[in-house]
């Protein structure tokens, strides 16, 4: 009875959370309290048609419990799923898999998926003589976690494209801005994973992508074909950007990309390649569509509205100068092609 009450208590605490990082932390507490695993890793999974990456976002090891930001996959703790045969097997079979270890322990991996789309993997090490009633409790806990995460994933996703939706944008962006502030205050010695160890490799970037003349697509071909264009564009976005980059359908024909830290040259190159790929693609019945992209640097002091305002200023420029192009807000200001936006109290926004 005591263990059942403990299990119910942990389920109630998990169900009260709506933040992925907090949910992960509660799951670790439940596993440690109920089953005392020798070790555990909770992986968040990122996959496209070509590859799958797993991010160790939380776990229990010899040093105790650790929890990382579940919304911002740290490259230092990411790896291809192919590098771990048991994780790969779990992905392929989409069912519980186990492996016998030395010293009387077993390693079990549970898949957490929705519509055959892998969301998480729970990797736990337990004694071989793990009691039967504890096994039942463990299965129940993982099943509840799967249902809770699936509901959260559904609520955070755009139902048409599967990208993150507008209502989750502010939260994601605040997480990124917090990370940008940390990067800005840290020395380069604290950032060994940056590709070139250059100062601007620590910068985050936000882009808003807008389908040109999308209203005419809906008016000419109907909303069903317009929806197909949106779905195909979302698929192209997944292939064009890194798995750790965050993609949103912001509303209507507008999409948002938040790039993980990289240089201005790489950011511009990525956005330009995506624009060119869209322009070259033949959409079913509709034919050619183009997009205008405007992007800006994320600053530690930014608010979501300030970032979007800057991107919108660059959009207006792109729309007025031919569409189907990439516009960089800070470059437009520094080159004198566009005036700096006046902000509250009569101050001029600097960059």
| CATH homologous superfamily designation of the largest domain | Reverse transcriptase/Diguanylate cyclase domain
Low-confidence stretches: 187-199, 344-351
Radius of gyration: 23 Å
Largest sheet: 7 strands, antiparallel
Described by the principal axes of the CA atoms, the overall outline is elongated
Q: What fraction of the residues are assigned to beta strands by DSSP?
A: 15-25%
Count of runs of 4 or more consecutive helical residues: 10
Instruction: Estimate the helix proportion, in percent.
Output: 40-55%
The appropriate CATH architecture of the largest domain is 2-Layer Sandwich
Ends: how far apart?
A: 61 Å
The chain-level structural class is alpha+beta
DSSP strand count: 12
Q: Roughly what is the average pLDDT, rounded to an integer? A: 85
The CATH topology of the largest domain turns out to be: Alpha-Beta Plaits
* Count of the separate structural domains: 2
| CATH class identity of the largest domain | Alpha Beta
Output the helix-strand order.
HHEEEEHEEEHHEHHEEHEHEH
């Amino acid at each position: 009875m005591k263990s059942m009450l403990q299990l119910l208590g942990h389920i109630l605490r998990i169900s009260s959370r709506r933040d992925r990082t907090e949910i992960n932390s509660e799951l670790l507490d439940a596993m440690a309290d109920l089953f005392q695993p020798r070790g555990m890793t909770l992986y968040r999974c990122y996959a496209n048609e070509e590859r799958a990456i797993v991010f160790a976002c939380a776990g229990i090891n010899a040093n105790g419990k650790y929890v990382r930001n579940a919304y911002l996959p740290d490259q230092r703790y990411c790896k291809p799923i192919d590098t771990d045969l048991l994780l790969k097997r779990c992905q392929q079979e989409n069912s519980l898999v186990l492996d016998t270890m030395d010293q009387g322990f077993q390693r079990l991996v549970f898949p957490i998926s929705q519509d055959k789309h892998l969301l998480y993997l729970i990797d736990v090490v337990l004694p071989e003589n793990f009691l039967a009633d504890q096994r039942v409790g463990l299965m129940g806990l993982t099943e509840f976690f799967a249902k809770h995460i699936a509901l959260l994933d559904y609520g955070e996703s755009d139902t048409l494209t599967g990208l993150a939706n507008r209502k989750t944008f502010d939260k994601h962006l605040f997480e990124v801005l917090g990370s940008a502030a940390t990067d800005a205050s840290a020395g380069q010695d604290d950032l060994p994973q940056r590709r070139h160890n250059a100062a601007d490799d620590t910068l985050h970037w936000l882009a808003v992508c807008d389908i040109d003349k999308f209203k005419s697509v809906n008016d000419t071909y109907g909303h069903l074909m317009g929806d197909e264009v949106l779905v195909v564009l979302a698929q192209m976005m997944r292939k064009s950007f890194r798995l750790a980059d965050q993609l949103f359908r912001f509303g209507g024909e507008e999409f948002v990309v938040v790039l993980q830290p990289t240089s201005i040259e790489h950011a511009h190159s990525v956005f330009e390649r995506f624009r060119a790929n869209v322009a070259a693609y033949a959409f079913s019945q509709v034919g050619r569509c183009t997009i205008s992209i405007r992007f800006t640097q994320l600053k530690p002091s930014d608010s979501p509205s300030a970032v979007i305002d800057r991107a919108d200023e660059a959009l207006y420029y792109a729309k007025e100068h031919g569409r189907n192009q990439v516009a960089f807000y800070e470059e437009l200001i520094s080159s004198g092609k566009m005036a700096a936006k006046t902000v509250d109290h009569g101050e001029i926004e600097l960059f």
